[in-house]
Model the fold of this input.
Amino acid sequence: MALYFKTLRSSSSGNCLMLWAEQTSILIDCGLNSQKLCRALLSQHAGEIGGISAVLVSHLHQDHINYSTLRVLEEHGISVRIHEGLVNQFQDKFFQDDRFENLNLKPFSSIAFNLGEFTIMPVKIPHSPQHDNYGFVIQYRHRGSLLKIVIMTDFHNWDGLLDHFIDADFIYVEANHNPGLLKKHPNPNSHYHMKNENVADLLCNARKLSKRPPAAVMLGHLSKERNTRELAIEAINQAFSNNNIKRDFELFVAPADCVSPTIRLAG
Done:
């Protein structure tokens, strides 16, 4: 009945998150930058690669899914789940020249679906104009109650999304950049990502409206040039202090180029 989470990679160079329980193991995105790295990480951290139940793909940027990782997933028969609205774009991008004839591609719609021990609700979130992007609210039954896991990354504002974060048991959310460092290192793509202060406001509002704190929050997808672990944590702590709200949950920051510690969410 135990439930665990960790990140294998979390940055613009590659994203791969892992959530697993006793009988079900899923990846959220698999944007590792080579087949060799993908095989090595999945073999080391997921046991038998073929034991992975599915990969949920948030959107089609190469740091979230790419040719190299699709080759490994196809090789091991791992189901690749993308929103039905992304299928044509996915096929145009990857299926040329009769590639991936054996890829186990299974689209999902905008309603909740079951995946082993998990119930998954896709949530459309705002990213770049040319790429639809989806977060996931995942439920897991544990000792008669439902645990709520929220995974949202690569979005630039949280308008209309607050309700999904209320009474979450675990949150993984993007904290991409610090505005001061963005001025020093300009990047137009950063405007499609969440700045630290916006994430801080989101978490403050969610905590204010929640009956209980999450067990933990992990900040992810930090820019290597435009953010630091310390600045992201400082922004969260400052917002909670300014709003006279106690930060009564553990706060983690996903490392960019290595595996995070495993967080035990239940059991």
In short: The mean pLDDT is 95. The helical segments are 35-45, 67-75, 87-94, 162-165, 179-184, 196-209, 229-242.
